[in-house]
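input
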Amino acid sequence: MLDTLSRNIIYGNTYCSLEHTGTDTLATITVLACKQHKGELTLVDKTKASTISDVRASFSKLRYAHLVINNNQVLQKTIENVNSLSDQVLLNQTFSDIDLDVFYYEVIRSKEKAFVYICRKSYVEELIKEYESQSIFITHWSLGHTPIVSLLPFLKDTSHIQTPTTTLELKEGEITSIDHMASESYSNETYDVAGLQIDGEHINGLGSIIKTIAGIDEKHVSNNFETKEKERQSYFKQHRLFAIGLPLAIAVLFVIFLVNFLFYSHYYDEVAVLQEIGSTNTLQKKLLVKKDSIVNQKQKLFEDVIASASSSASYFIDEVIQEMPETILLEGLQYHPLQKKIRKNKVVEVEENMIVITGETSENSDLSSWISSLENLEFTDSVSIDNLEEKGRNIRFSIAILIKA
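output
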C-alpha cells in the first residue's frame, strides 16, 4: 500500500508512452496515454505527432514518459537460443565485433529463439535530451518490440500480433518469430488485453506502460541500460519530491506561522486581562494591608484585654491569624463570643471554647485553603461556616472554630 501511495505521489496515475517509428526524414511519434484507477487501466488518449514539440503542444501537462525507439535507428536480428546462450554470445553471433560502449542492446528470449535489438547510445541520449528540453522526463526506454513481452501473459489465446511494420507470431505465450512487412499490408486489428481493447498501432505503447508499472520481465528480456534507467528514475523521484515538497514545506510553514499568530493574539489578550486583574489585586492588596494594620492594632488591644483572662487565648488567636492569607480582610474575631446581648442587670452569657471570625475575601480558593489550615491546628476540634454570601466581587464569611476541651 505504501509503495502504491509513493508511486502515485511521484508518478501520478496517468502513464504515457512515446513510440518513435518511421525514418529520420519521415518520422512518426505514436503517443498513448492510460490512467490507472483501482488497479485497472483505461485509455485516456492516443494520437500521433511529427516532432517532440508537437507532443508537448498536445500534452501540456505531461511530465514523464516511456520512450520506445522502433525506427530505422534500431537494428534487429533473430538467432536460435540454444542452451540459453548469454547476452554476450548472442550479440557476438548476431552483431560481430559490437562495441557495447557505443550501443545499447535489448534481447527478447523464448524457448527456442532470441531476438536482439541494438541502437546507438548517442541517438537514444540525444532523444532524451530533446524531450527534457520540452520538460518531458524520460524515465524508461525500450528498443523495438520488447515492450510487447509485458503483454504476453494476457495474450495466451492470441496467435499473432500485427503492427504497422511487423508481424509477431505467438505460441503458448511466447514470441516465436518477428517478421517485417510493408506498411501497405497492415490491417488494423484490435486485441483484447485483460478487457482493454487496443489496436496494433498502439499495442507496443501499451506494453511499455505495463512495463513502467510492473517492471521488466527479467526472465524473457535483458539489456545493458537497466542501471542507467534506475539512475534516471532516482533522479526523477528526487526532482518530483523537491517539486512537491517545496510548496508543501512552504504551506506547512505558513500554517505554523498562522497558528503561532493566532496563539500569540489569544495569549496577548489573556495577558492583558491578567495584567488588569493584577493591577486590581495590587490595589486591593494595598487596601487589605491598610485594613490589616487597623486589625493588627485592634488585635493587639484584644490580646492585651484577654491576656489577663487566659494566656491560652492569645496562643489560639495567634495561630489562627498566622494561617490567614493576605487576600482575606478580617473584620472581627471573638473569643468566647456572647450568646446574647448584654443587658442591664442580666448575667453575661458566652459560648466557651469557641472562636468566631468574620471578614471578606476576593479569592474563594484562599478562603477554602485557610479553613483547611484551621482544621489542621492541633487545638481545633471542628471548623464550621456559619455564613457565606457574595458582596459585589468579594465574599463575606463567618467561621466558627470549636476548641478542644
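quick obs: The longest strand covers residues 380-391.
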